[in-house]
Amino acid sequence: MKMSCMVVGCGSTGNVCNILQERREKWIGALRRADLTEQKLKYGRICSKHFITGKPAKLTEKNHPDGIQNKNSRTNF
């Protein structure tokens, strides 16, 4: 299955980031999508356009603004 960005209205297929397990629930909540299934979550990614620095923060960076995607989405944080 082709991997693409899960942010509504994006659809980018380039430079996608794996969802980090520790932040998974926050990321899913930030997507605000009612149509997410386990299949979509398994193959879904968030592309670099939705992070201030272009990539998610490291797990050790608990207070980094890129802890969850927060840019170029319908509801920015």
From TrEMBL:
Keyword DNA-binding: yes
SUPFAM superfamilies (UniProt xref): Glucocorticoid receptor-like (DNA-binding domain) (SSF57716)
Residue ranges of domain THAP-type in the record: 5-60
Protein name from the UniProt record: THAP-type domain-containing protein
InterPro entries in UniProt: THAP_Znf (IPR006612)
Ranges for region Disordered: 57-77
Gene Ontology MF terms: DNA binding; zinc ion binding
Coiled-coil stretches noted in the UniProt entry, renumbered to this chain: none
UniProt KW keywords: DNA-binding, Metal-binding, Zinc, Zinc-finger
